[in-house]
Amino acid sequence: MSDKRVPVLVVGGAYTGLTTALSLAARGVRPLLAERRPEPSRLPKAWGLNTRSQELLNSLPGVARRLRDALGETKWPRMSHGASLADPARAFLDPDAGLPDPQELSAVPPLAWVSQAQVEDILRTSAQEAGADLRMGTEMVSVRQDVDTVTATLRDTTTGHEYTVEADYLVAADGHLSPTRDEVGIDVEGSGSVGHMYIITFEADLSRYVEPGAVEVIGMPGSGSSFILDGSERHTLWVDYFPERGESPQDFTEDRCLERVGDAVGDPSIDVSFVNARFFSINHKLATRFRQGRVFLAGDSAHACPPNGGQGGNLAVQDAFDLSWRLGMVLTGQAGPGLLDTYEAERRPLVEYTIARELELAKISEGRVPASYNPADPNAPVPAPREFVGFRCHSPAVVTEDGDDRSLHEDPWSPTGRPGGRAPHVALHDARHDFGIHDLFGREFVLVAGFDGPEWVEAAQRTARDLGVTLSAYRVGDRFVDVDDSWARRYGVDSSGAVLIRPDSVIAWRAKKAMSNPGDELAHALGSVLAR
Question: Which of 19, 152, 307, 489 lies in the 20 to 30 Å Cα band around 358?
Fold first, then answer.
């Protein structure tokens, strides 16, 4: 007998676990989240949410408003490369060089420069409001599963009390060392450990070099370090750490850390206060599979990559969202269990591409990733919109069209509207405000029809009723206006066509024009996507 039964047990309470918990709770599935740390981390850790991550998170209750408040007047990060912060010869990267207007891609900023600690606070508060059961100071001791149930033993790290929880599914969000992954027998591949660094957090008034509210990322090969200046008086310095040369954490005393910070600042007149220093292992690994029975891997438990391009946290958010909407559909009886198989089928190829590119960006030297790289190099293989906005998914949860080349990416500034791709941005306007089409997505399946296709809206209502699926339907030009008259062109349909969008804003199916039996066509497509 177990002490408690829950639909989903989430192990780990950082980016991945909190996004999973909030997304599930928002879909009417109340998860239990176990996090071994007694208190949330207040250290910055990862930085920045890309376009895709912002769009997904903004669709969850409570996030958009809190994220806007956290961003405040923060400016686009400025990238540079030099001997020190005070180096007058620092070279700066032009963020607009060679790229079209990013506002054509989304209504959100190209990058939300917020720390992982800030985002986790937002997710934690929002998840609790949505009804998720979050338990800090709780670790998983063991896990076993059978064909119907996952059974886990949890321990209160303060009292030592142990108890048993049964769940329909378990999400392992417990980091790149993931005891859960090891316990269920999933192997990893990749380059493994590819470097080490120390991350020094310090406080200093750097206003003579950084504008108030501005953010800087500075690579300094001469000092073997890189800065992240976050626009306040608290900043981060990454420094090389060489355990293979006999260095140990004990070598990084407060005095040594302050010396390294002083060298990197390059201005002895600035007072610096030490806050914290911690070891960070750089890894490149990919789980051989993302699922074992009723246990799923997401975030760092499924993959890890060097931090240089800032995509580890973004991949974690995206994994969590993509898994949780599927779990929500299955657990509320709207989809068959086969839908869960499409999580790995879609995510793993995209993740594999990104972590390989992140490894290339890190420019491994002598078998290790250096703490310093050149963020002002216009030829560096940096993460680009083609990767995180122009991605394409391929699985039975997409109705693939004849002749599809099954490519992993396409040019997001010239979208095709093919099933499997992210729904292209379209600027909309109604009687109250301007907004982007992605504001319609995220909570359930959505059908968007052209102005000359009102029969699609009626078909969606019947299909939702007949299949017992939550499905919203909109007609362009009815309740809102297509500001640039671009919807049909960007989705590859005419004004009588329709497009079916999944909760993760991926195009599941489209009808390029009116059909004689719209209800039958839509019901067949949706049933196929949901593994019904």
Answer: 19
Ramachandran angles phi, psi of 121, nearest 5°: -60, -45
Residue 371 has pLDDT above 70, yes or no: no
User: Which of 142, 182, 157 is closest to 9 using CA atoms?
Assistant: 142
Nearest Cα residue to 96 out of 114, 110, 108? 110
Torsion of CA 86, 87, 88, 91, to 10 degrees: -120
Check: CB of residue 270 under 8 Å from CB of residue 84.
no
Mean pLDDT, residues 424-449: 95
Note the pLDDT tens digit of each residue in 478-494.
989 999 999 999 999 99
Strand segments (E) across 4-52: 4-11, 32-35, 47-50
Tokens of 440: 């319609």
Query: What are the pLDDT digits (tens) for 249-264?
Result: 888 899 999 998 988 8
Nearest to 121 by CA among 140, 111, 134: 134
* Spatial distance between the Cα atoms of 370 and 194, rounded to a whole number of angstroms: 9
DSSP symbol at 438:
G
Residue type, 316: A
Residue of 279, 309, 285, 281 lying closest to 299 (CA atoms): 285
**Helix (H), strand (E) at residue 234:** strand 234-240
pTM, whole model, 2 decimals? Answer: 0.93
User: What b/e string do you get for 138-155 counting C-beta neighbours within 10 Å, with b at 16 or more?
Assistant: bbbeebebeeeebbbbbb
Between strands 295-297 and 291-292, the pairing is: antiparallel
- In this predicted structure, the answer to whether residue 246 has a pLDDT above a threshold of 80 is yes
Supply the mean pLDDT for the chain: 90
Count the alpha carbons within 13 Å of 64 in the hemisphere toward its beta carbon.
Answer: 12
The CA angle 174-35-348, to the nearest 5 degrees, is 25
